[in-house]
Every structure is written in C-alpha cells, then in structure tokens.
Amino acid sequence: MSIMDYTIEGYKNVQAKQYIGIFGNPIKHTLSPVIHDTLSKSLGVDERYIPFHITDNLKAAVESAYDEGILGLNITVPYKQEIMPYLVDIDPAAKAIGAVNTLVRTEVGYMGYNTDMPGLAKAIFSEGMELKDSKVVMLGAGGAARAVAYMCLYYGAKRVYIVNRTFEKAKNIADDMNTEFGKECIIPLSAQDYKSIPEDRYIFIQCTSVGLHNGDGLPLVEDKEFYRMAECGVDLIYNPAKTPFLQLIEEMGGKAFNGLKMLLYQGIMAYELWNQVEISEELANIVYSELKNTVYSK
Ligand code: NDP
C-alpha cells in the first residue's frame, strides 16, 4: 500500500515537490496543515503537508512513508507512544517524556523528537512568563502532562504540584521526572488533596481534557478560591478559546492563555527540524493569525 492511500478527502490530488504530514486517528480536523502550508507558501518552498488517516498497522505506514521519500511527519493521538519502536533513534528529551510527536528523516530511517515540550515553553515565554525558579500547579497527569512536567524541570522550576483525579498517574510522572532530573521537585496529589498546596503565587497549567467539550463543567478542582493563587493560567486546550478553567483564572485576577500558541510553536519547531530553517517571529505571527482565523471564525 502506498502512503498516499492513507490521505483524506481534499488531499488526494495534491501535487508538490516535497511532502510532509501527520499520522493520527481521527485526523480530519487537524489544524496542522494551516501551520505548515502557510510556512511553505511564505518561504516559497514547494512542499505540502498531508494528513494521513492511520487506523492500523502503524509500522507498515511508517515504512511506506520512508520508502516514498516523505521528509518528515508529525504524530498525534493515539500514536505518540506506539510509534517509538519504529524509529532509528529518539532524542533524549522525547525518550524521557515517553512520547514522540515529530519524525525527522535521516539516511537510515526516521528519528523521533518531542516538540510539544519546547513548543509550550516558547508559548509561555512569548507571553512574558518565566519558568526558571517558578512554582507551578499542574492539573492532569495524562500524556501531555508528562511533557509539561519535563518542561518545568528542564527550564528550572523550583516546585511543581501535579494534581490528578487518578493519584497513581500523577505519582508515576513525579517519580519518573524526579529521577530523570535527580531532584525531588515534583509532588503528586490526588484532586481532593489540593488544599495541601501551600499559599503562594503559582503558574497554573491545565493539562486535563476537561473543558474540551462545550458544556463541560468546572475544572478538576472546583473551588474558586484555589485559583486566587494563580499569577497566570495556561490551558493546553485551545478550542473553545476560553475554557471554564481560564474563566476562573481571570475571575480570580490571573492572566489567562489558551493552548493555541503551544500548537503554533510545536509546529514551527517541527518545520524547522525538517527544513533546516529558522522561522522569524514575524512569520510566526502571520501563521498565528491564520490559525486564529481558522479555529475561531467558524
Ligand atoms: P490524556 O487522555 O492522556 O489525559 C487526560 C487527562 O485528563 C488525565 O489527567 C485524566 O485524568 C483527565 N481527565 C479526563 N477526564 C476527566 C474528568 N472527567 N475529570 C477529571 N479529570 C479528567 O490526554 P492528553 O494528555 O493527551 O491531552 C490532554 C489535553 O491537552 C487535551 O485536551 C488535548 O487536547 C490537550 N493538548 C493540547 C496540545 C496543544 O498543542 N495545545 C497538545 C497536546 C494536548 P485521569 O488520569 O484520572 O484519567
């Protein structure tokens, strides 16, 4: 089977000199083509970004992509872990996080990276926040939270509390990351123990999927007073633009940012790896406007 057999409606007849793309399931609603095709167009590169709908046999799909010359791939839900055995090498940060979202072509196969982690960091810095010596409260301990916890320690956060519905998952991330960085920096908590977090000013990062669907109620910790400790709050979710978590952050006096800039920068960093270019902030802002138009004008 050719890799092009996995493309979705709207991409079947796309012609370009070079192809990049994304593996996922479902994949129809991915926004990534907006990022990469805007970059290629602006830079005058004859390269197109193709969504590939992979329902099974991931190994065969990666092999076809490589054999047919695909320059690079993003990997999204549900394959960020499953892809790892099919790569020739994995960047140390991606290995420690345990998830790969970007494949870069080498002479012997694809190498795996995680650009979600530096992508979120860049988004945070671009909003004027610092991670060095910061204190962080994370809500959630799923796949994305692993990258967030790694990011906090990598950039020098002083203390991180991970609050999760399932305590064991928070503990697993805390144990793995504390071991990885050789310090006892992360403290796992179950949701009902949130009051044990000492009174202080924190960066709050919302990493659960609560708020993703219109009609989702309050965030994991429902107590409004809790959010008074937030200097600012970042939600990884970007659609809807203002989740109940972000509403609470603002209501209690904190600055609130959603996950659209994380999406932007993880994409830009992947594009830079594939094409060996550096994307200017000016171009990043153009892509960001395109993204906002696409997501929020519907
Ligand atoms: P996972 O499925 O791996 O983790 C889901 C998390 O949400 C877990 O902590 C889970 O808790 C919690 N959760 C789910 N339902 C509930 C509920 N009803 N009450 C309380 N907690 C709940 O998802 P990911 O980590 O992959 O993704 C998390 C979010 O981040 C998603 O909304 C995703 O869209 C967003 N994201 C955004 C990105 C971006 O570029 N902006 C990139 C990646 C992710 P438990 O452990 O107890 O099950």
What features would you describe in this structure?
There is one protein chain. The protein has 298 residues and is an alpha/beta fold. It is globular. The mean pLDDT is 97. The chain has a 6-stranded mixed beta sheet. Strands 9-8-7-10-11-12 form a 6-stranded parallel beta sheet, with helices on both faces. The chain is built from 9 helices and 12 strands. α4 packs across α8. NADPH dihydro-nicotinamide-adenine-dinucleotide phosphate binds next to α5 and α8.
Keywords for this structure?
298 residues; alpha/beta; 36% helix; 20% strand
Total strands: 12
Strand numbers in spatial order across the main sheet = 2-1-3-5-6-4
Average pLDDT? 97
Tally of separate helices: 9
Q: Which range best describes the helical content: under 10%, 10-25%, 25-40%, 40-55%, 55-70% or over 70%?
A: 25-40%
Task: Report the biggest beta sheet as strand number plus sense, adding barrel if it closes.
Answer: 6 strands, mixed
Main structural class = alpha/beta
Secondary-structure map:
Blueprint: E1 18-24, H1 32-43, E2 47-53, H2 58-67, E3 72-75, E4 89-90, H3 92-97, E5 102-106, E6 109-113, H4 116-126, E7 135-139, H5 143-154, E8 159-164, H6 167-181, E9 186-190, E10 202-206, E11 230-235, H7 244-251, E12 255-257, H8 260-275, H9 281-296
Parallel strand pairs: 1-2, 1-3, 4-6, 7-8, 7-10, 8-9, 10-11, 11-12
Antiparallel strand pairs: 3-5, 5-6
The protein binds NADPH dihydro-nicotinamide-adenine-dinucleotide phosphate.
